[in-house]
From TrEMBL, chain A:
It comes from the Bacteria. It comes from Paenibacillus sambharensis. It holds the Pfam family DUF6179. This is Uncharacterized protein. InterPro entries: DUF6179.
UniProtKB/TrEMBL annotation, chain B:
It comes from the Bacteria. Keywords: Coiled coil. Pfam families: DUF6323. This is Uncharacterized protein. It comes from Paenibacillus sambharensis.
Length: 478, 162
């Protein structure tokens, strides 16, 4: 390989330069051919020969794909296989430092050889990604954030199971929900996965520098501040951790803590609100540098943190200007004693068979009072209540009868679920939410809202008081 | 669609060879009173390319066409005067069916299925054949979907220790 590269470089002359802006990482082979034609490094006959050689590879792979049982395929299948072939070819040609060398190689060497070497590269990358996954899995944070856990435990293994180097090299083959702080979505296939896992490992490594209690407390405070259930939200944990660590340093705290007290917050607020934008930048730059030094961050993570810094600077500038720093600086709150902590025990759930049987009984009754009585006496689990409501086993005023039989706590819990989006806005309370024009997917949700709208003011206020006493944080489902 | 055109143009070089192979088939079909002229073959290949293009398919060889001719030329329902037209229609039905059965049935199986229906249930009617095959394809897809649903969920595991 080395000697091939050397021979190629000798053939180059300085005048034959390609315009690098014309090259696309995602379609490197094709853009190389186009750029090569324009720079006079390739003739149209050579391009036709190269194209024809790739079509021959495609022909062979289609034969392999159909196991020789079909001589035709859909254009979609053929295009997919061709994209996979070019992905492998790109993988090899991108390994040349200069595009001109890659073009000369393309000109001199049989494209099948380029393809084979590309497949080797893709395979090699896949093996590296498998190792990366093992390391990532072993260092996974113990935190109840669904997107993070499900991505590592479920989505990434799906990738390994479905990924095919020959027919699907360019496909990413997994639905990854957890967002990285910095992601390059232009990459595809196994090279995207490599980047994703490398970055997730870096992010996880940084978060692991903090104790689990620190992390859990930060997440809980973040959820309270944003008025959402952080367990099911899509957000980047690393950015949250890094920014609070920076604020800890800026407010005189230690680098290895994420807790910002109210006093620290007030000090930070005063400081940041009085600074001009360039000064905020300098301040954050210095704090990040200090954080890196105190935690003896290695060069790779340091470079990654530097890339995330700009986002933090912009967020702080914006928040300082609009007086919303509380959303950026997550402050430790006294654990407000909420009068209600709601536990939903999975153990009390009915089996599917039991549930189906009760639902049939409900539907068999004619009188709404009988239906309500049966529901009240049969259901003890909140999950079952939700399943029952979702099953559409009630009609019109039967819903009203059921909701009227509920206590304010039960109504408050349902309201917290139905209005979870609206409740994020600090300016909205239950009464104002009920005035909004809303569309619901489920019939029961619409009936629930109508039932609340018909409720007396006193009862509605009691529901609202209960809602304020329930934190999503305290709605433990298992 | 673009690929379909590229393949067809790449196949230009072998068009002559295809024509020779198809002409040679006349030796086998002549016994059934069926013969294609060089002009018939040329037009048939043009029609086939158009069918492939309109159904969004890429064809790599002439084998399926040869098999189709050999199979159907034995049918008593096909007469010389409509032979070339019938072959064109059969090509159209065949590629339509390849799409509708999601490429899950091999060329040979599909062609034999067409021939059996043509002979036995359709009495040589191409319209009837189309409608029977539509029913067949829809039933086939339904079974396919059912099988996939049964398999779903059971195959989502990957062992990192492998």
């Amino acid at each position: 390989m080395e000697s091939e590269h050397l021979n190629v470089s000798r053939e180059l002359t300085t005048r034959d330069r390609v315009q690098k802006t014309r090259l696309q990482g995602n379609q490197y082979t094709i853009s190389l051919m186009n750029a090569g034609l324009q720079a006079g490094l390739l003739t149209s006959q050579e391009v036709a020969r190269i194209q024809s050689a790739f079509m021959e590879i495609l022909r062979d792979l289609i034969h392999k794909h159909t196991r020789g049982e079909s001589t035709s395929v859909t254009t979609e299948t053929a295009e997919n296989i061709l994209t996979s072939i070019l992905y492998a070819s790109d993988a090899y040609l991108l390994s040349f430092e200069e595009p001109e060398k890659a073009i000369t190689y393309l000109k001199a060497v049989d494209p099948r050889r380029i393809y084979d070497k590309g497949v080797e590269k893709v395979n090699q990358c896949l093996e590296e990604v498998k190792l990366l996954y093992k390391e990532l899995k072993a260092s996974k944070l113990e935190i109840p954030v669904d997107a993070y856990n499900m991505t590592i435990d479920e989505s990434l293994p799906v990738f390994f199971r479905k990924y095919g180097v020959i027919f699907d090299a360019h496909n990413t083959m997994a639905s990854i929900d957890y967002p990285l702080a910095v992601d390059d979505m232009r990459l595809q296939g196994v090279f995207y996965m490599k980047q994703y896992m490398e970055r997730l490992k870096l992010e996880t490594g940084f978060c692991a520098l903090y104790g689990q209690q620190e992390l859990l407390s930060l997440l809980a405070n973040y959820g309270r501040e944003c008025r959402f259930n952080y367990r099911i939200e899509l957000f980047n944990i690393f950015e949250l951790v890094m920014s609070n660590a920076v604020f800890s340093i800026l407010s005189g705290g230690a680098a290895n803590t994420l807790r910002i007290s109210e006093i620290q917050y007030l000090r930070l607020e005063q400081q940041l609100s009085s600074l001009a934008k360039p000064q905020i930048r300098t301040l954050i730059n210095e704090a990040v540098a200090s954080l890196q030094q105190e935690l003896t961050i290695d060069s790779e993570l340091k470079a990654y943190m530097d890339r995330c810094q700009e986002n933090l600077i912009q967020r702080v500038k914006h928040a300082a200007k609009h007086n919303t720093l509380r959303k950026v600086i997550i402050t430790e709150r006294e654990d407000e004693t909420k009068s209600l902590v709601v536990y939903f025990n999975k153990e009390e759930r009915m089996s599917d068979v039991q549930l189906r049987s009760v639902l049939q009984e409900i539907m068999a009754f004619d009188r709404k009072e009988d239906k309500v009585n049966l529901i009240r006496s049969s259901f003890h689990s909140f999950h079952d209540y939700l399943d029952m409501l979702e099953s559409d086993c009630l009609y019109g005023e039967e819903y009203e009868a059921l909701f009227r039989s509920f206590g304010v706590t039960e109504l408050a819990i349902l309201a917290k679920i139905v209005f979870c989006e609206e409740l994020r806005s600090e300016s909205l309370n239950l009464s104002s939410i009920l005035l909004l024009e809303q569309h619901f997917q489920a019939e029961w949700q619409m009936q629930f809202v109508q039932s609340l709208q018909r409720m007396s003011r006193d009862r509605l206020e009691a529901v609202e008081r209960n809602m304020n006493d329930i934190d999503y944080e305290h709605m433990t489902f298992y | 669609m673009y690929l379909s055109r590229i393949f067809n143009s790449l196949n230009q070089s072998v068009q002559e060879q295809y024509r020779t192979e198809l002409l040679a088939l006349n030796d086998k079909t002549r016994g059934y009173g069926l013969v294609l002229t060089p002009e018939d073959i040329k037009l048939m290949l043009l029609a086939r390319n158009q069918i492939l293009y309109s159904y969004g398919r890429v064809e790599l060889s002439i084998e399926a066409t040869k098999e189709l001719i050999e199979l159907f030329s034995t049918s008593a329902f096909i007469q010389q005067e409509s032979y070339a037209d019938t072959l064109n229609e059969l090509h159209e039905i065949y590629y339509y069916l390849k799409n509708e059965t999601e490429d899950r049935i091999s060329d040979l199986k599909l062609l034999h299925r067409m021939k059996d229906l043509f002979e036995e249930e359709c009495g040589g009617s191409l319209d009837l054949l189309k409608s029977k095959l539509e029913e067949f394809a829809s039933e086939y897809r339904r079974e396919l979907q059912q099988n996939e649903l049964t398999r779903e969920g059971a195959d989502d595991e990957w062992n990192p220790n492998i």
